[in-house]
Amino acid sequence: MGNKLTAVMIAHNEANRYLGMVLEDLVSYCDEVVVLDSGSTDGTASLARSFPRVRVYRNERDLFWEDESALRQQAWELALATHPEWILAIDADEMLERKFKKMRFQLLSQKGYHLLGFQRFHMWNGMNTYRVDKGWDNRWVYTPMIARVFPGKTYRFRPQKLHGGRLPENVDGPMLATGLRYRDFGYVRKEDQVRKYLEYMAHDPTGCGGVLLDHYRSILDPDPVLLPWTE
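The structure assignment produced for this chain is given below.
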């Protein structure tokens, strides 16, 4: 494909969620995909291995809630070992919109920007509706997801137990706001909304010192404001 692109993700018990759909999409435009299985007890690793160009690594115990930044550092180093020109840091329940495939060559061939940013859409109560009330509206915010790799550079993630960021803290800018979107399927199902709320409250009961507490609580709002997704 040229301009080698490696995708990297951390996965934990994703076999019966969106991993298959996500990997099928990723292998259509990525040269390699690195999956770090963090202590899954289902068929996550086997499912990932069934796709071409996917490298699967495994930790026997899930470390995500213990030290997210260390886990992301481990995954990043594994992605670097594939010798990519660019790395896409994506979760097992996220997908870039289809337009990226058409723009891939243009975006990865340009020399002026070292980060590519995408708008995040939280899909809610369905695969094709997204939430826009309270802190869930990210339509005008660009999340850096793809970073140019500089050979020989030592990358480091901010040492933080939770919410440490998907990219190393010392990635080099500037960032191009691509005008492209991505869908986050983490809150599509009611049971996932409840699970995420309970996990956040169990592992971060103060909400990062109160900053995120109302955001956590809003996960369980009975009447979120939703809009239809179209591509």
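Interim note for the steering committee: The domain at 5-121+139-186 is CATH 3.90.550.10 (Spore Coat Polysaccharide Biosynthesis Protein SpsA; Chain A). The radius of gyration is 17 Å.
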